[in-house]
Amino acid sequence: MELNELREGIDRIDDELVKLFKARMDVSAKIADYKKEQHLPIYVPAREREKLADVAEKAGPEMGNYTRVLYSMLFELSRSYQGKRNNTLSPLYHKITKAIDSTPQLFPQQAMVACQGVEGAYSQIACEKIFKSPFIMYFKNFDGVFTAIEQGLCQYGILPIENSTAGSVKKVYDLMIRHNFSIVRSFRLKVDHNLLANPGATMESIKEIYSHEQAINQCSDFLKNLTGVKIIPVENTATAAEMVASSGRTDIAALSSRSCAELYGLKSLASSVQDKDNNHTRFICISKNLEIYPGSDKTSIMMILNHRPGALYKVLARLYVLGINVTKLESRPLPDRDFEFMFYFDLETSIYSEEFVQLMCELEDLCEEFKYLGSYSEVV
Fold first, then answer.
1. What distance in Å separates the CA atoms of residue 327 and residue 340, rounded to the nearest whole number?
2. Which residue has the higher pLDDT, 12 or 178?
3. What gap in Å lies between CA 161 and CA 330, rounded to an integer?
4. How far is it, in rounded angstroms, from Cα 11 to Cα 3?
5. What is the pTM of this model?
6. Percent of the chain topping pLDDT 70
7. In angstroms, what CA-CA distances link 331 with 114, 156, 170, 292?
8. How far apart are CA 225 and CA 228, in angstroms?
9. d(CA 13, CA 17)
């Protein structure tokens, strides 16, 4: 049999499948209407498990798993269609709508903002890109930034969330789990690390280098070529520069930004020493209040999924069905819960899209627990 004949056979089968799919969705719509009238839930796990086992058995050993995957997707499509048809708006969606209506049309130009580190920190640079004229309060660590917002000392906080070379800032993720804050904006900053030292220092005289752990990781290729030099992590790259300047010593140096050289009277022994030239850190701006500004096209959520096969697949399948792009997916172990994980998602979709509305109304059915972290735009 020729290939064209086989393809014609596939086309005929597909025509029948499309007709059957439409017929199935028509019945699904009637089920949705009945459930709405009787106040029944759309998602019935026991029914789906029974159905999956039944179709897998009917398909036989060779096709059983393929059939299970196919019907899992069909169930996701059916639930999504039923939810859309019933137009059931969740409390979360009402909360989001209220935030959209109450948030000012323009992002604030001035605000009291908490940053980790000292003058010259990368978080300060990001802060001044997000706000036109911020009033900045500096804190020693990330916990201090969250506490400042919690206690009302600052309205916003600026925190690094991920780096293109060194990956995610895990401490910030852990704090986001603990605090009920929202992301209101983000900024992607190009990071350029320089080896800064006091006047009179040389590369040969340096015995210790101070910097933040993330910066140290981002400059690993440069650092491993240095012999007899001790690498010491500190809270912040700008803090490292300040320590070097205040010491007056010529045998220590800091990995820090170029702006810190002028700020603290240091000289650059080596410029742009990061492993990759395309080195960016993404900063988020957080607030205690849910604020959603016009143009928001990114949404961040956290989910705790049931610890069983297919749990993550169901979420990804639903996002695929809705046509929502996932730009980041990361898992974090849950404290005090053995072998259970929280999943962090960054999603790309406008807050005004029908798909966004539908997802916000279906989140509760997709997981054990979830946390909406906010919808926002990214400053370029």
1. 23
2. 12
3. 12
4. 12
5. 0.81
6. 98
7. 27, 26, 10, 25
8. 10
9. 6
